[in-house]
Write a structure and sequence with these properties.
By secondary structure, this protein is an alpha+beta fold. 43% of the residues lie in helices and 13% in strands.
């Protein structure tokens, strides 16, 4: 896993931002075919080109970065709350 922070991505207000929070031990336990599918969707340029969004990947133990992204993406520039969607897989 890697920390894919890209400052230019943080300042494009009309895009979709996706943050994956993963447990590396669970990723390691995936089957070979599931790892291949995960690797494809953990590939930042692949996802950005295919879905026209910004992708960030965090380990589940990176609490400081999780809080940062939740605060950054959870509010508009004027401080209004925005919706966040969480998927548990």
């Amino acid at each position: 896993m890697y920390n894919a922070m890209n400052e230019s991505a943080l300042f494009d207000p009309n895009d979709i931002d996706v943050v994956f929070i993963v447990n590396p031990q669970e990723v390691e336990r995936l089957s070979k075919s599931a790892k291949a599918r995960f690797s494809r969707f953990a590939n930042r340029s692949y996802v950005e080109d295919l879905y026209d969004c910004h992708l960030f990947i965090l380990r589940n133990d990176q609490d400081d970065l999780k809080n940062y992204f939740e605060n950054w993406f959870g509010h508009s520039r004027s401080g209004e709350p925005k919706g966040l969607i969480r998927f548990y897989i």
